Amino acid sequence: MEKDMTKGSPLPVILQFTLPLIIGNIFQQLYNMADTIIVGRYVGADALAAVGSTGTIMFLVLGFAQGITAGFTVLTSQRFGAKDTSGVKRSVANGILLALLFTVVLTFFSMISMRPLLHLMNTPENIFQDAYTYIMIICGGLIATIFYNLLSSYLRAVGNSQTPLMFLIFSAVLNVLLDLLLIIRFKMGVAGAGYATVFSQGISAVLCLFYIYRSMPDMWPEKHHWKLHAADSRHQLSMGIPMALQFAITASGTMIMQAAINLFGSEAVAAFTAACKLQNLVTQGFSAMGQTMATYSGQNFGKGDIPRIKKGVRAALLTSITYSIAAAVLVFLLLKPCLSLFFSGDVDMAAMMPWAKTYSYMCALFYVPLCTIFIFRNAMQGCGYGFLPMMGGVSELFARLIVAVIAMKVISYPLACFCDPAAWVTAAVFTGVSYLFVMKDIDKKYGTKTPTAPIS
């Protein structure tokens, strides 16, 4: 079910594409939450803290995988917008082959670095072994994560956001069922949560692959496409590596922040983990809009319609700012009832709430700058600009690093929580200015009017 985003009024086109992504991202968060809720209620608060303490490491590893695969699909989006069917097929095959190579390398290096990384992050001793067990299972199953992200990104690159949603919903339900089976029935603890996540994502990847093969003939590569093409590899790596590094750099900053949070003990880590899960759930509209703008900008850049990209960015900003205000209100209303979902009845919720409220309420005040980062960053990436979005990640890293170091020095939990807002404001300013520069650069190269031929 392809969708040409180069036609029609920008706002309805963007919203039609974004809504399935929001639903899909929410389901993704729900089955991540299922891990933590079931672990917290049936294994214990320490086990929840163990899973939560690996969250930033997972963001580093999985974010790198997500960035590299999203970068590989920018070329597909541009060629689809240019109506280059043969080029679309060739880019799909080339991206799959590159992804296989990166899977081997990333799996190896992530698995050998986990133990020293957990020590470096001040992981509390009483939760260290559970944290190590969980993250090693996730890293061992990276092939499932990488290929689900790659194949679903290919579908979105040609405007199909509904099919990945259906497969993700199926995967989310399967993950919850496996959590219940492995954690409660077979008493596998955090390992059960890890295996459930990997297996359910693997099923999603297989479903996406089968769908493309059977239902998307204009995407499925022919026999002669299955080799590495130098020009396509250069283009895909020139986008994929900066996007992966952007995720890795941002994740490094969140790991520094997690190291600061870990200093306050497993109770603070558990409450912080639960608060983060709620925040991740209500802010999924931001990442969904970012994914939309990558596809929208890629297709319109491939066609050569630069004014339409600018109109789309303005429409996306208006929509996302409205959404961010609603998300902040939800956090203030839902934190207390949602927090109790993560813990069994013997946990003192009165002790947990202050830790969670400090982080959640502080962050909710800064959702507007956060939402702009996704729009500007992905619009630039869709146009083939990878360096400036990556440097936006560097600005986030420095902001988090400075605040986290000060927080650890003065032993201040509120200051540790301020790492995220500080990073968001810094990156919002940087990516906003960068977007203006990129648009000016594109206008200089291609003119302010719609070209008569696709941009190459």
From TrEMBL:
Membrane topology: Multi-pass membrane protein
Domain of life: Bacteria
Signal sequence, renumbered to the chain: none
Keyword list, A-Z: Cell membrane, Membrane, Transmembrane, Transmembrane helix, Transport
Protein name listed in UniProt: MATE family efflux transporter
Cross-referenced InterPro entries: MATE_fam, MdtK-like, Membrane_Transporter-Flippase
Cellular compartment(s): Cell membrane
Transmembrane segments: 12-31, 51-75, 95-112, 132-151, 163-186, 192-213, 315-335, 355-376, 422-439
Pfam families per record: MatE
